[in-house]
């Protein structure tokens, strides 16, 4: 019963709430994003943020038979004391998400096998690979 009281108290202190769902193609990438983004603490004590991995059905408890590998959606819940604080925090967070996704696109382990935005022709130490 204490957990419900704690949640009610959190809702009173932080009345502004936003839930972001960010889908990824695999559990590995979703988990990497969670670990990368969770490192940075919120700069203001007027904002709280929680992370979870979920499946496409929105079920945060892993569905039976699907296993943890089905959890490919990053669920981020923001709570703040004012709408302005919520907006500022989420804007900064979305910039971090953009950076994490760009790094994944360019430096994922199978990046060599996918078409790139730039060519490697003439790059020192790079040999052409026939696929």
TrEMBL record:
GO biological process: tRNA threonylcarbamoyladenosine metabolic process
Organism: Trichodelitschia bisporula
Family named by the database record: Belongs to the CTAG/PCC1 family.
PANTHER family listed in its UniProt record: EKC/KEOPS COMPLEX SUBUNIT PCC1 FAMILY MEMBER, EKC_KEOPS COMPLEX SUBUNIT LAGE3
Signal peptide positions (record): none
Name this protein carries in UniProt: Pcc1-domain-containing protein
GO CC annotation terms, alphabetical: EKC/KEOPS complex
Pfam family, one: Pcc1
């Amino acid at each position: 019963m204490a957990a419900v009281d704690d949640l009610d108290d959190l809702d009173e202190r932080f009345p502004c709430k936003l839930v972001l769902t960010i889908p990824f193609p695999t559990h590995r990438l979703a988990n990497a994003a969670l670990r990368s983004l969770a490192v940075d603490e919120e700069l203001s004590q007027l904002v709280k943020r929680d992370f979870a991995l979920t499946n496409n059905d929105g079920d945060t408890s892993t569905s039976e038979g699907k296993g943890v590998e089905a959890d490919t959606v990053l669920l981020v819940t923001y709570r703040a004391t004012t709408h302005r604080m919520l907006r500022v925090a989420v804007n900064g967070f979305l910039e971090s998400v953009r950076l994490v996704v760009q790094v994944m696109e360019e430096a994922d382990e199978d990046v060599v096998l996918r078409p790139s935005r730039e060519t490697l022709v003439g790059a020192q130490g790079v040999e052409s690979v026939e696929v």
